[in-house]
Amino acid sequence: MKKSNIKLFSLLFAAFTMTATMVSCGNDDNKSNPETNNGDNSEVHINSVVSRSDLSVWGLIESVEAEDPMYDAQEKIEIIKGYISVNDSKVAYDSLYIYSPVMGTGKFDMNTKTGTMNILSANLQTFEARLSGSISEKQFVIQIPSYKGGTTITSHIGKDNIYTLNTYADNARNYFQPKSYATANEKMVIILNTNQETANIYFTSQSTPSWGTHVFTNISAVHQSDSYQISGEGSAIITSSRTGELNTYLVSINATFKDGKITGEISVPSVMGGITIHLNPEDFDTVINNGN
């Protein structure tokens, strides 16, 4: 996904949370300031936030028109409860906001379980959506009936399956210096299907330039004495630096997963004559300190 897209999603989410922040700025003595005048002598006043929950989640995204699911390791959910006043009447609100670098942003009414998702594909579009789930169930489910034949986002609460890694890249044709674009604290979703010895992996590169969104589904994950050897092919959606178009490429991964850490390589053979993304390389600190 293009960096500009991610930045746009960030701006949209910031707009949502700015509204929530404004709500939280009511005076302690409950003398609220007018926000708008509706033209019928009724004034909407900002009051205070009663509670706020910031949740770390990871998302499983499934669409009828998509052959494989996608995973989002960097979703964020915020739930805000509070009240506003209209004239002398208080009106409670209970809202859920979601930010997803893969899907976009959304806002939902926790009472009616309805809301909208703003999704950026060729352009920014808004879709009606439904919400279910709860914090106690450790997941929220968003259904978007009119997007890609029907799309479901299952947002799992907690940091299980989300792993941090450092990366840098090499190029077979030396279009750039070896060990370039070192990027720290990237996120990867790794789901081990231990009974079948397979794994699903989702990774969105945060380097500049970005190496795209990578999805590996049901690839080999062979259990060894204290680790898993992970290998297989997948696909990556990468933005062309020349045209700005999104292109899909065959990619492969060969890595070891041990003690919550993945080390190895992702190979992208059809981009720039061959790109290798190194996952948690041993010399990463030296490389990034040298400014690569």
Strand segment count: 18
Count, helices: 2
Reading the helices and strands in chain order gives HEEEEEEEEEEEEEEEEEEH
Shape: elongated
What count of domains describes the coordinates?
A: 2
Ends apart, CA distance between termini: 22 Å
* Helix content, binned percent: under 10%
Low-confidence runs: 1-46
Roughly what fraction of the amino acids lie in strands?
over 45%
Radius of gyration: 22 Å
Task: Identify the strand order in the major beta sheet.
Answer: 2-4-5-6-7-8-9-10
Q: How confident is the prediction overall: mean pLDDT?
A: 82
What attributes characterize this protein structure?
8-stranded antiparallel beta barrel; 8-stranded antiparallel β-barrel; 292 residues; mainly beta; disordered N terminus; single chain; 18 strands; 2 domains
What do these coordinates show?
The protein is mostly beta strands and 292 residues long. The protein folds into two domains: 3-157, no CATH class; 162-289, no CATH class. The protein has two helices and 18 strands. The protein has helices at 3-23, 284-289, and strands spanning 34-37, 43-63, 70-72, 76-86, 89-100, 104-109, 114-120, 124-134, 139-144, 151-157, 162-171, 180-193, 198-204, 213-223, 228-239, 246-258, 261-268, 275-279. The strands form two sheets. Strands 2-4-5-6-7-8-9-10 form an eight-stranded antiparallel beta barrel. A hairpin with a 2-residue loop joins β16 and β17. The radius of gyration is 22 Å and the shape is elongated. The chain starts with a helix and ends with a helix. 30% of the residues are buried.
